[in-house]
Amino acid sequence: MDMNQRIKDIAGTWGADFLGVADLSPAHDAILAQGGPVVAAYPRAISVGIVLLHTIVDQLPHSADRAVAVNYKHHGYDVINQRLDLFVSRVSSLLQREGYQALPVPASKRVDDERICAMFSHKLAARLAGLGWIGKSCLLVTPKEGPRVRWATVLTDAPLPVTGKPMEERCGSCNQCVEICPVNAFTGEAFMSSDPREKRFNAGKCDRYFASMKKKDPELAVCGLCLYVCPYGQHRNPAQTGL
Ligand code: SF4
Ligand code: SF4
Questions:
Q1: Are 141 and 49 in contact (CB under 8 A)?
Q2: Residue 151: which H helix or E strand, with range?
Q3: Do 50 and 149 meet the contact criterion of CB atoms below 8 Å apart?
Q4: Beta carbon of 139 within 6 Å of any ligand 1 atom
Q5: Number of folded domains in the chain?
Q6: pLDDT digits (tens, 9 = 90+) for 73-93
Q7: How many CB atoms lie within 10 A of CB 222?
Q8: Ligand nearest to the CA of 138
Q9: Contacts with 192 (C-beta within 8 Å, 6 or more apart), sequence order
Q10: Max Cα-Cα span within the chain
Q11: How far is the CA of 232 from the centre of ligand 2 (A)?
C-alpha cells in the first residue's frame, strides 16, 4: 500500500474531515521567523482537520451558561485536539519507520507567550494545502465548514504529492467576525501573505479577555464568537448572507 493511502487510512481511524499536503517553500521566511531553523527545515506539511460539532458551536453565544462552556471546552476542544494529536503521532511514527524525518506539531499548544503563538501555524499549512483561506478573523475558513475546524500538522521531508494551492479569500464585504468580537481584536483588513498578523489581529486583546474570564471562573473562559458567526460555517448558502 502506498504512503498516501496509509496516511488516509489513519485519518479515517480518527475521523478526520480534511487532509492535505502543503509545499512550505513559499512561506519559508515566515516559518523561520516563527519557529526557528529546526521547524523551517521541513519542505512539506501534512495538514489534518476535524470539523467541530455544530450543535456545540451554535451554542457559543450562550457560553455564560456553564453547561455550554463545559461542553465546548470538552468536545469542542480537548477531545478533538486529542484525536488530532493521535493522528499526527501515528503518522509521524509511520514516516519515521519508512526512513523519513517527521515532526508532529501539537493541535493546540502555545510555545511563545510574548508573541502569543505556537511553534508552527496550522492555518498556514492548511492554506498552502489548498483547504481554505485566512479570513478577516485570522482563522482558516473552509468553503463548506467555515472556520469550524480544528487543525494539526506533521512536518516532514517525505516526498508526498502536494494536494493544492492557496485559495483566493472569499470574505468579500462580510465583516461579521470583526463586528461580533467583544474586545475589537480585528482590524477588518483582508489577509495578505506579506502582512504581519498584527495588521489584522491584536492577539493580546483576545488573550487578555480570556485571562480576565479565567480569573472570574476558569470553567467559563470561553468565547469563539468569531468562529461561531462566520456564515461559511453556518450551513446557510453564503449567497443568502450577502457575501
Ligand atoms: S475568541 Fe472572542 S475575543 Fe477572541 S478574537 Fe474571537 S471573538 Fe474576539
Ligand atoms: S465572518 Fe465574514 S469576514 Fe469573517 S472570516 Fe467569515 S466570511 Fe470572512
A1: no
A2: strand 149-156
A3: yes
A4: no
A5: 1
A6: 999 999 999 999 999 999 999
A7: 22
A8: 2
A9: 199
A10: 53
A11: 8
User: For residue 117, what pLDDT is reported?
Assistant: 67
Write the DSSP string, 14-37: TT-SEEEEEE-GGGHHHHHHHH-H
pLDDT for position 141: 97
Each residue's pLDDT tens digit, 155-181: 999 999 999 889 989 999 999 999 999
Atom in ligand 1 nearest the alpha carbon of residue 209: 3
| Residue with CA nearest ligand 2 atom 2 | 174
Which helix (H) or strand (E) segment holds residue 50: the answer is strand 44-51
Q: Which residue has the higher pLDDT, 235 or 84?
A: 84
Which residue segment(s) compose the domain that 181 sits in?
Answer: 3-241
Please answer whether residues 4 and 80 qualify as being in contact, where contact means their C-beta atoms are separated by less than 8 angstroms. no
DSSP conformational letter for 112: B
Q: Cell numbers for 171, please give them.
A: 470574505
Q: Count other Cβ atoms within 10 Å, centred on residue 3.
A: 16
Q: Between residues 238 and 40, which one has the greater pLDDT?
A: 40
Q: How far is residue 239's CA from residue 171's CA, in Å, rounded to a whole number?
A: 12
User: What separation in Å is there between the alpha carbon of 64 and the centre of ligand 2?
Assistant: 24
